[in-house]
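Dataset card, provenance and construction

Sequences and ligand SMILES were collected as paired inputs. For each pair, a complete structure of the chain with the small molecule in place was predicted and serialized as structure tokens. The example below shows a pair involving flavin mononucleotide. Curators did not alter the output after generation; any descriptive sentences attached to a record were derived from the structure itself.
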Amino acid sequence: MRRVDDFRLRFGKRELVPIMCGGMGVDISTADLALEVARLGGVGHISDAMVQTVSDRRFRTHFVKEKAKLYKYNAANTDKSDVQFDLGRLAEATHMHVGRTMEAKRGDGMIFVNCMEKLTMNAPRETLRVRLSAALDAGIDGITLSAGLHLGSFAQIEDHPRFRDAKLGIIVSSLRALQLFLRKNAKLDRLPDYIVVEGPLAGGHLGFGAEDWSKYDLRTIVAEIAQYLKAEALDIPLIPAGGIFTGSDAVSYLENGAAAVQVATRFTVTKECGLPEKVQQEYYKAGESDVVVNTISPTGYPMRMLTSSPAIGAGIRPNCEAYGYLLDSSGNCAYINAYNREVAAHPDEKKISVPDKTCLCTHMRNFDCWTCGHYVYRLKDTSRRLPDGSYEILSAEHVFRDYQFSVDHEVALPA
Ligand SMILES: Cc1cc2nc3c(=O)[nH]c(=O)nc-3n(C[C@H](O)[C@H](O)[C@H](O)COP(=O)(O)O)c2cc1C
């Protein structure tokens, strides 16, 4: 019976354990988690989502306070078009987060950064270019483009000296999205080094409709994309993601030609993960009916989360002066509109509730949006119950090695 460890992910001459820990935004996939996965020979991801607040937490910088102070005058204004990121400071924060992570890297694995296009930051093109270039400058091994079609992202960095040597990949959820990306980038003569195919059971934002995600299935999408690449004589590693819960799940994809798998939910209950332990216990306790795919994210993409997430129905004032990562190119965010609508409808209420959208920046920053993969309810089977009723937090090494060596759909409990 084969194990994940019988396979290797190949990037040129480099060989890695074919386990990629997916990016989990706003410092859920921390540098510590990515470093541990890289030490063990796989690919770890950090994320550049809300990098200034992440830097403040990691390095005691003051990016957020500075920005909030600069735009304090605008806090009561519904028009947020004034609230711009200073591109120099954005580069600095990215450089620090990525650079310090890469300096600490040990072992044979690699560290990539997850870069979501939907973080439009009130100036989508300019801020994305800075984020991508600064990550390359700071020595990141690779960049995974996510949450968006990224039709112009390669062109943004085509003049960067590392454009052809860093590993660049894209996450897609359909053949159509991949075809668009390839067509748009054909003239750059630079294919992606890998393609993560994310199915409907993944955590975070989904590339499917909120109503029809369950009609899709990862195996079918991977097969369609594999067939297309073969017909086009394109040799690009495919990396399925979403609902791969055991080593045996992973092996079944690897045996069918996948180059590696991307996983995330199993790592949310590790001590290296950024989620506070209180939240990790919520993940452990969750039952299948406690998981929902809803449309409260202002990005416009559906998102999977626990129904008990404090972010659902919360009605805090938009905090774009401090954050503002989801402001579109004209300073709008769907949450601002929803919030203003509720304030106008309930002029006498001190505490309002916004049912249809959430202030994702603030709630992700505070670990109050409990996004998770579909199989979050199986996490309890991966650990031990302690005498006080809580579950033991695992080590990333334990989870990684379980994926790497387990057979027969077994999940090893902590020693
Ligand atoms: C808590 C959490 C946060 C996530 N955040 C992001 C993110 O910021 N960007 C992204 O591209 N994918 C994100 N994802 C998706 C993962 O990177 C990964 O592709 C997917 O969850 C794999 O499926 P699994 O969780 O069933 O293993 C997130 C997943 C989880 C569980």
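Derived descriptions for this record:
The chain is about 30% helix and 15% strand.
The first helix runs from residue 31 to 39.
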